[in-house]
Structures are given as structure tokens and as C-alpha cells.
Design a protein that fits this description.
With 324 residues, this protein is α/β, with parallel strands linked by helices. Helices cover 32% and strands 21% of the residues. It is globular. The two termini are 27 Å apart.
């Protein structure tokens, strides 16, 4: 089998949420840590779209930010094209970072309001030494045409555009360094439904045109069904199921995945009658013992409280559940 473009191995991220040191000493309290990501491992092959789904607080965006280097990992490894990014010299890591980019969730916050659109898109070109001067201006115009805008828009400021147009600008900026891999952190969640479809179709067209690989973060299963080839389901920082998209929507193995699908308003999506979501996600500072999902699980047994379940193989991936 070909080497995956991205491999995540045993990834952890803990945040110190303790009170200030002096207050802890006075009140005789210990340090507290929030585990946002716990022992997550997955691979993404070249040219595919791997989606991470789950409720708010499941660790999706934290994983995205660790992959692109905006957050450090507490433990584990992230390998891009077989290279461990945490072990690379600074110069080699800088060269590697040209090959992956990120599209953020909020198009109103991810673009510098003081810069013209042309400068925003040209910044990666100059930073990585890909183009400058007239060549950079020509490349900016080409990228704007590629994402469905006009080369004349390079002279405008972000506030002169709608949300969907701003996200097109963000996509053009991500494409400017000629990346192979793009992390998409809920790129359509802040947009109207009609605009969402346009942006998703644009992203699929760009993937076909440039041979891009996507990590797609979303909580919207209808969007994920449209985009993903494989899916990973996160619950309280742990990966509880991975499967090919068609298999997961047809026959989910983990009870949490089944609950997510049963809650989708579009009945055609899951093929079952819609059911309300049971309970709420637990406090990540003091999670339940054993399987963290057991307080909400309709098929829970006493054994579920004893230990964190190990991943078990399924027809197209894995599921971390003793009932599989």
C-alpha cells in the first residue's frame, strides 16, 4: 500500500485549567487538566477526504490546529509524507509547511480587515518565495478567477464582500502556496445554506483539478456525506469509530455514531425515524470511568464502566466498543 500523506499516531492534548498557583496553594487544591484529545490515531491517503465529526467539545478543531502547527501536542506524533514534524529542523519544517494549508471556520475573522484582498492572497507567495512583483499580482488574479471571483477584486478590502465571497478569498489564499493537503475547519458552518452548497461544490472541483487531500472538520452530517470518502467519529477527545463514508451511513457500528445519525432531521440520510439525542457530553475535566459514552448509551453494561474499550476491527475501519 502507498504511504499515507498524513499519519496521526497516539495524539494527546491536555490543557492546564488550574487556578493560579497562589490560589491553589491557599485553597490546597491540585492542578487540573482538561484532556481535549486522547490517544487519537488515523491516516489520510493522498487525494481522499477524511472527515472528523462529533458534538461540540469533542476535540475536532484541536486536532486540526495541532496538525497545522497552531497548537503543540502533549504526546504522540504527526507525520506528513512520512516525516515526523516534531523532529524536523526549523528550515526543513518551514519548507514542509508550504505543502499544507488551513481554511478556517469564520470568514469574517480569518481575513485581515486592514489588508487588501490582493495582499492577503499574495502573502503566502512572498513568504515561501514563490513569486513577487508582477508575477505575484498575476498569480493573485488567476487564483481569484479560479475561486469564482474577479481579478479586479484584488484591490478591495474584506468588508466589501459577503460571507460566501470571503470564504472564496480564504480558499484562494490557501491555494496560493500550491499545497497538497488542506485542513478545512467547518468551512461552511457560518454561511447560509444556499451559499454552503456553492462553496462545497467549489472545494470538490478544486480537489479534482489540483489533486488535493482534505481533512474536513464538521458537525453537519449532511455536509460530511457530500464531501467525505472516509469518516472518523470523535467523542470526548477519543476516536470511537472510523469507516468508509458509505458504510458508516448505511451501517454504523458504534452506539454514539448511531445516535448522531438518528438525530439528523433529514430522514433520507440515515434511513431511520429521527430520535432525540440522549443526555449531554460529560465534563472533560472529570470524565466518566471506562467508556466515556456509557452514561448516554442505550446498550450499556456494567463492563462498560470498567475500562476504556480498545478499538475492534469492522468491515471498513474500527469501532471502540465492547459490543462490536
Amino acid at each position: 500500500m502507498a504511504e499515507p500523506l498524513l499519519r496521526v499516531e497516539g495524539l494527546w492534548r491536555r490543557f492546564d485549567v488550574s487556578k493560579p498557583w497562589l490560589n491553589r496553594v491557599i485553597e490546597r487544591e491540585e492542578q487540573q487538566f482538561l484532556t481535549a484529545v486522547a490517544d487519537v490515531s488515523f491516516e489520510i491517503a493522498r487525494g481522499e477526504t477524511f472527515a472528523l465529526v462529533g458534538e461540540s467539545g469533542s476535540g475536532k478543531s484541536t486536532i486540526a490546529r495541532m496538525i497545522v502547527g497552531l497548537l503543540g501536542a502533549s504526546d504522540g506524533r504527526i507525520l506528513f509524507d512520512g516525516k515526523d514534524m516534531s523532529a524536523l529542523p526549523a528550515a526543513e519544517l518551514r519548507a514542509l509547511r508550504r505543502r499544507f494549508q488551513m481554511i478556517f471556520q469564520d470568514p469574517f475573522a480569518s481575513l485581515n480587515p486592514r489588508w487588501r484582498v490582493g495582499d492577503i492572497i499574495a502573502e503566502p507567495l512572498r513568504t515561501f518565495g514563490l513569486a513577487s512583483g508582477a508575477a505575484a499580482e498575476a498569480e493573485v488574479g488567476r487564483l481569484l478567477d479560479t475561486v469564482g471571483l474577479s481579478a479586479k477584486d484584488a484591490e478591495k478590502f474584506p468588508h466589501e464582500f459577503s460571507g460566501g465571497q470571503r470564504q472564496r478569498i480564504a480558499i484562494a489564499r490557501a491555494l496560493s502556496s500550491k499545497p497538497e493537503f488542506i485542513v478545512c475547519d467547518e468551512p461552511t458552518s457560518a454561511l447560509d445554506v444556499s451559499v454552503q452548497a456553492q462553496i462545497l461544490n467549489l472545494m470538490r472541483d478544486l480537489q479534482d483539478e489540483f489533486g488535493l487531500t482534505y481533512l474536513f472538520i464538521s458537525h453537519d452530517l449532511s455536509v460530511v456525506r457530500h464531501m467525505a470518502t472516509r469518516i472518523g467519529v470523535l467523542y470526548l477527545g477519543r476516536l470511537v469509530e472510523t469507516a468508509e463514508a458509505k458504510t458508516l451511513f448505511r451501517a454504523p457500528c458504534h452506539p454514539y455514531t448511531r445516535m448522531l445519525l438518528d438525530a439528523v432531521p433529514d430522514l433520507a440520510l440515515s434511513g431511520r425515524r429521527r430520535k432525540p439525542v440522549l443526555g449531554e457530553i460529560p465534563n472533560p475535566i472529570s470524565p466518566p470511568p471506562g467508556c466515556a459514552f456509557h452514561p448516554r448509551c442505550p446498550v450499556m453494561t456494567e463492563a462498560c464502566k470498567a475500562a476504556v474499550p480498545e478499538p475492534r476491527p469492522t468491515p471498513s475501519g474500527m469501532a471502540a466498543c465492547i459490543r462490536v
